[in-house]
Amino acid sequence: MDKVTDVLNIEQQIEELSRYEGKALALDIYIGSQAVATSGSTISEALISKLRRTDPERVRFSKGGGQLCLPDKDIEQAIRANIIPFRAELALEAGVQEDLSQEVRGMATRKVRQLFESSRFLSKVDLNAAADVASDLIRRAQSLESTAFKLHDLRSYDDYTYFHSVNVCVLGIALFRNYTDSEQQLLDLGISLLLHDIGKSRVPLEILNKPGPLSEQEFDQMRKHVRYGVELLDGSLDVPKLCLEVVLNHHERVNGTGYLRQLRENELSLFDMLASICDVFDAVTTDRCYRSKMDFHRAVSILIRGSGTHFNNKLVNHFLQGIGRFPVGTFVLLSNREIGVVSRVNSEALSLPEISVIFDGWGNRLEQPRRLDLHADASGIYIDRPLDTSPLIGISAKNETDLKH
Hints:
The chain contains 15 helices and eight strands. It has helices spanning 3-18, 45-53, 75-82, 87-93, 102-122, 127-142, 160-176, 183-194, 205-208, 216-223, 225-234, 241-249, 270-284, 296-306, 313-323; strands at residues 29-31, 34-37, 59-61, 331-334, 339-344, 354-359, 365-373, 383-386. A hairpin with a 5-residue loop joins β6 (354-359) and β7. The radius of gyration is 25 Å and the shape is elongated.
């Protein structure tokens, strides 16, 4: 940015500041190296007059400088223009670690598609191929520093079942790896989650991809995918018992309202109940041909409301501790109007994660992201709200934990 533009921006910010006389500052103001006003102080007429009399080249707002991108209260427009298009770049600059790249997930999805298609024609499942995919996902997941993950979008509805299988596998591995020291048990779980919907290879595509509600007859056909999955695995060699159970029971609910056998919590394994949580969460946070994906926080509320009735209470709590109220990679507006990205989940205080602040309270891009641990910070700053452009959708309380998927 050239000097003329810099000067104009500073003058514009001073005039913008004058509109908030009597309000508290959410940033520091410098003339040269001297701070003439600090965050929390009152915007006074004397301050405005002093700034107007000062050479604009000597005035600096907070650390960022540059163009004010949050004029007045039109924050949503500013976010769309200045943050959303550069989300990946900003997150990387802030040190947010990618969990698994789209390329890795895409490769795994293609292999899962091949597994499903071959099972349709051969009436059995290539478990060695499934184990290879699961092993690779486990290896990559174990290299991550935390169980936190980022959600990924899927643009092709035809690939939903395969992409969903990969996502559920990644979720389950990330959450269960702290429960066991057994590599074989983790691998068996990975295979089970990867194949939990293998029975859908026998469900007609016109039902799987139907853009509207299923008829009762069509939904009966959809429910049969769990039985079809077991039949396919029965035709394969050396199938882990855990895998058969997860495929058969991942739509069961702890209060006995699931399908196919209406089992209750004492009849379900830890893996069955883990699979049901991961399955529902990924299903509702992914775009489908018949509905838009659900906002992250609405999806979390489904798990919380279903805890103890549809889902195992302890597993829901463990799941929420893993992803946090604000998952890694979430852009948030702080109470002091700064904007940052969640860089680490705090399992002891889910509402107070670690933030990499990237825009100051006036929307100026910081020269370097500033680390802010909300749990350890004594200033009382908190997350005002997540900056999420995903649409919210209405779902009846009766069916929201048993969506068609």
